[in-house]
Amino acid sequence: MAPRADGPDLIAEVDGRVVHLSSDFGVRHDFGSVGPVECPLALDPLNLRAFRYISKPGYGRGADYSQLQAFDLKTGKSFCVLELPLNQWVLWLLEWVGSGQGGAGQLLGLLASDRTDERGVVIEHQMFVLKPGETVLRRRPLCRDAYRPLAFSRRRRELVFSGAEGTHLLGLGGDRKRSLGRERCVTAEGAAFDPAGRARMVLAGGGLHLWDLDSGGCEPLHPRGRFPVWSGDGHQLYFRESSSDLNRLDFRTGEVECLLAVCGQRERELWFAQPIRFSRGGRYAAVSITGRRLRGLQQNPSSGGERERVYRYDHATVVMDFERRELWQCPVRATQIQWIG
Known about the structure:
By secondary structure, the chain is mainly β. The protein has a domain at 34-141. 0% of the residues lie in helices and 56% in strands. It is globular and about 50 Å long. The mean pLDDT is 90.
């Protein structure tokens, strides 16, 4: 149907810029470009502020910078929260953790730093906490092999990381609580904690798997799927099999249903796939969908003139209203989506 403006607002990354959107995709505020580093948007729902890491290489046309920025959703203004050295950046993980005692809350993220030693350039990862008004990150070391963060549970106050040796469950201090070897499940493609806080989670890698965090048992759920997201009631799991679809698994029946798909899609890939994002309460959801079409063949001079396939990618962002059973879309690719309100 035609886009509706009566749903909650969103904040997302569109064409490399942080944008505050109404539910019909109208632009309320454009906060500007973000740079090349992949970092989620963290949202403080009480103060209506979002946060993201921003970087800009100067290339001789201005000063480089590396900083955490805040975006005020009420005024449309942005400001620097913390200036970082040029050899440090925040990537893959940034969460706003509210205080249960009426406090101000804090940012939790992953800090990457590069340094040079006898081995050459070394990249180090650390977790950090930053409270409003502070100018120094409180750093926390990560256990060995905890490389890429996959999911964070506010209820359990735990994170899951993937690494070369397997999957690791960590506490907020960076300590390892449990590991799952790669011979049992190869994960680097998303994870989801049980929304009720029970000791289990879904891992994506070579299909979908259910990991029991108490016993350590891991059982297959579905032979395909990435970027799992649990429904709020814990009965359903949403996941992607490609950039051009969205699927739902019912835990009560074991049935899998395709909810969205690009019509006539023959060329499938996962380069553009992102997890679905639900609004508070679960009535609305947003997800990016990409269709891949073969345009033809062309010669590639770098490979000796061999002919290679050339594709066209058609992007769209879809909003779904589960209460009215309606959906609408906009021909843009929105990523790092967060619902406001």
